User: Fold these one by one.
Assistant:
Number 1:
Amino acid sequence: MPMPLLFALALILIAFLAYVGRYSGRLRVERSREIAAPLAEVYAAVADFATWPGWCPWLEHDPAIVLQLAGQRCSWRTAPAGDYEIVQRIAEPGRRIVQRIVSREPFRYAGQMHWEFTERDGRTLVTWRIKGRVAFALRAFMTTVRGALELDLRYGLDKLAGQLERGGQGAAYRIEYLGLRDVPASRQVSESWQGPISGLRTAVDGAVGRLRQRLAAAAIAPAGEPVAAFQRTNVKQGTTACRIGIPVADEVVALETATTPAHRAWVVRLSGDRAALDIAWYEAMQRLRIDDCQPDPAIPPVERYLGDTLTELLLPVRGT
């Protein structure tokens, strides 16, 4: 190999190591949630690994998972990637639990999980905390690792609440995996929008209202439920660009329209609070990975609004 090329590669390697070296690799993620159930019941559900399949977020990703239990040790593997081991270290009934966690895939990290329980007038405040260190190669992606774990902890506490609270008080939402579906070609009267993800719900409501008025003025009936097709999303910056539309049967010359070709999509349904859409998207991508499906970048993913409390996520996939 020519010396100039070797020199250039060495400079690139040094620059990369210097960049990664800026990050310590230390990881700390924490979520809390109040659960309307007695402290003893909440503590028991966390302390007993046999209950984990009902609420643990990491077990959500692969329906074929089987826990391996051995005393105070719990481990499992998922396909094509996923390898976890948790060992109970300290258990103080009614107060706290400390567990050792090792994740080899999809993110390599090791550390401790701390659980704290506080009684509040018959309810229980649960704090779930992970402290550890990620592998050196992942230090440049700490934001991604931290964001994924934050969603995991939030979803796990929500599922734990839904399982323990009487009358389903904690089940503010439910995620269903509908699998691969054929999506027919469609045309929508639409508006473009870009801005912070946090403002999307308000933007959708406003755009749908305006589009319905335009269709009514043109005496055109909608041919389906409103959608938002995401053309570009920057999770790190918290921004997105999308087209918000209402399907129509025929071309509408007087109004701005967009078309979507027929395709196959992995479909996930969120029932309930749309504040959980970020969790639904994250879980949908996990299932896409587990099922070894490749996203199709030529077709934008879509949210389809089937009512005030029902949303479908459509993730176009390649070659299925």
Number 2:
Amino acid sequence: MMASTSAGQQRYVRAKPYPEWKVKVLKELEELIKKHSVIMIFDLRELPASMLHQYRRVLRGHGVVKVFRNKLFLIALRRIYGDSVNAEIEKYLSGENGFIFTNENPFDLYRIIVDNSVRRYAKPGDVLQSDIIVPAGNTGINPGPVLSRFSKLKIPTQIRDGKIWVARDTQVAKPGDTVTPELADLLRLINVKPVYESLKVKAVLLNAKYIIKGEELAIDVKAYEDMFKQAASWAFNLAVNSALLIPETISVLIGRAVVEARNLAINANIPTAESIGFILAKAQSQANALAAVLANKAPELSK
């Protein structure tokens, strides 16, 4: 049920009392929600416990990583924010989810998550994001029927000192390829972990009102840097061509004005300290050109 608050907002009120363990969890959730303006929701399905523990360590100091039931999370959220909670958040609360409570920029936090991706073995059905190269060298594997696996994937091998050696670095897959059971089995056998896996962020909730989809967090920082540089360059050129006097353009505009004034004085034959040398040089050049023309038509004048 809903009850009015002093501010006129509606807040969630449960008709029946909660069990003691739920009261404790709800209290913890409410405190986390009150202290943090940003809540990141990530998918727990097929997430290894070891990866979850690693991210708890990685994100220590950046945010609090917790696992709660979806319904309890939604109840706590509504108890704090009432009807101002963005209703669309419910569609991101299906299945098993984890939550990161933070006050940091969600894009910066997502970059930390991606930068700390965990390497794992490829599984059949994985779609690869990069080339897979089987490195040359000793595999440490005894020769036997396993040789047929290398042969099937066209990996050249040699037998040395009773072990299988890969003769040369060999590409066995490229970006966009789907991992086959044979490839997954062989990569695990030679201990190659080609897949990087990180938390699968479903959405970010800002102050319970605004939602950022998980896929929108993966921005190309370099591309945005290039865009800002290009925009700054265009703005600078516009300011210069518009003769807009600002700290960034003043030296360029003064320099251009000096050059234009000097050129005007030279072309108008106005002798100044800055132009006299150029005027005399121009006069000398013109005189030499005239003498060359006259020399061809009246050689006696050149003596």
